[in-house]
Amino acid sequence: MIAGVGSAFRLMGVINVTPDSFSDGGAFLDADAAIGQGRRLAAEGADLLDVGGESTRPGAAPVDAGEELRRVLPVIEALVSDGAATVSIDTSKLEVARAALDAGAGYVNDVTAFRAAPELAALVADRDVECCLMHMLGEPRTMQADPRYDDVVSEVKAFLAERLAFAVGEGVPEERISVDPGIGFGKTVAHNLELLRRLDELVELGRPIVIGTSRKSFLGRITGRDVTERMPATLATCVIGYLRGARTFRVHDVAPARDALLVTAATVTGRWSSTTTAS
Ligand code: HH2
């Protein structure tokens, strides 16, 4: 157990209301399908439902704010009214985040860490919601073209420290901020593995760590599995991430991640609560 890190974890279920996301593009573009997926993930144990209307995969087509809002708003409204989980908006656009928060979202997940729209920080501060600041090298279109670091962990850490200071300077209370190394965002397989292996160094930032490894291509590179077959590999990264101090897990498959992490946390802490009478 890492000093200063509580044992509890949160699961963030992914809902991509997009035609082109890397693992489920098109499956939930229809609002009813996305709402159904959100309800399923909440029933499986998601604490957060991360709704996104623009893919960040390398080479994805940019989407304007109007189209992004048209995709996500009906989904956010329905999931907020269910009240089963906190709704997160996965966006880098001020206008989209504002409308999502107006509709009752309680979390802003910005893969640019307030670089694309610095005004997002003041909005998050004003609305008193949580946010996640993620590291990305470059921008989605080109980020996988030969990414280089001298020391990936210390560079990601320095970046996150700077973005954390920016957000706090804009009035976001520190306790509402999580940080994320941005697995797969301008990183080679070796960079991703090193970040997971040395994740405990990011714990020193003093903020909860989010990781998003779910179904990502580095897992396919290691296992030879297609994107639809990467759930077991994803679980391995959740377990190692937990052991190294991550406490929020952004996943497409909530039920298996919940089970893996409940058993991991119970083993590490020696504490658990029985939820059924299963023998
Ligand atoms: N990964 C993706 C999108 N948003 N947010 C955080 N905080 N961390 C991540 O690792 C992260 C993220 C990419 O995954 P996905 O949403 O499934 O794909 P796409 O961007 O193609 O829609």
CATH topology: TIM Barrel
Secondary structure tally, helices: 10
Specify the biggest β-sheet: 8 strands, parallel
Strand percentage lies at: 5-15%
Instruction: Report the CATH superfamily.
Output: Dihydropteroate synthase-like
Averaged pLDDT, please?
A: 94
Radius of gyration: 18 Å
CATH architecture: Alpha-Beta Barrel
Distance between the termini: 28 Å
Question: What's the arrangement of strands in the largest beta sheet?
Answer: 6-5-4-3-2-1-8-7
* Secondary-structure class: alpha/beta
Uncertain runs are none
Q: What this model shows, in words?
A:
It is a single chain. With 279 residues, the chain is of the alpha/beta class. The protein has one domain (9-269): Dihydropteroate synthase-like (TIM Barrel, Alpha-Beta Barrel). It has 10 helices and 8 strands. It has an 8-stranded parallel beta sheet. Helix 2 packs parallel to helix 3 (94-102), helix 3 packs parallel to helix 4 and helix 9 runs parallel beside helix 10 (254-269). 6-hydroxymethylpterin-diphosphate is lined by residues 14, 16, 18, 21-23, 52, 55-57, 90, 109, 111, 132, 134, 180, 182-183, 210, 212, 250. The site of 6-hydroxymethylpterin-diphosphate (HH2) has 21 residues, from strand 1 and strand 5.
Topology:
Elements: E1 10-16, H1 31-44, E2 48-52, H2 65-82, E3 86-90, H3 94-102, E4 107-110, H4 119-127, E5 130-134, H5 152-169, E6 177-180, H6 189-197, H7 200-203, E7 209-211, H8 217-223, H9 231-243, E8 246-251, H10 254-269
Parallel strand pairs: 1-2, 1-8, 2-3, 3-4, 4-5, 5-6, 7-8
Helix pairs in contact: 1-2, 2-3, 3-4, 9-10
The structure holds 6-hydroxymethylpterin-diphosphate.
